[in-house]
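Fold this sequence, please.
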Amino acid sequence: MNIREGILDSLADGGESIIQIEEYLIFLGIHSFRYDIINELKTLLRQNKIYIEYPPSAKGINEIKLDSIKEYWFELTEAGRAEWENIEV
C-alpha cells in the first residue's frame, strides 16, 4: 500500500485529522514525512477525492492552508470512496 492508498484507507470509516492520518500510516508501516502527506492531501482535494468537513468555515475550500492543517478533518467524497474500494491489498 502506498501513501495515497493509506490516506484513503484511513478515511474509509469517517473523518480524520492529519494527526490521525499520520498515526494510521505509521500503523500500516508506510513511513512518510508530513510534507509528503500534505502534498498527497492537496492532490486528493484537487481531484475531488476528499473534502474538508471540519471546521465548518473550511467547507468547500479547495486549497489547504498550512497554518490551519491541524484543525482540518478530511472526509472521502463518493469518488474517493470508489477509488478506495478498488484498492487491492
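The mean pLDDT is 92. The longest strand covers residues 50-54.
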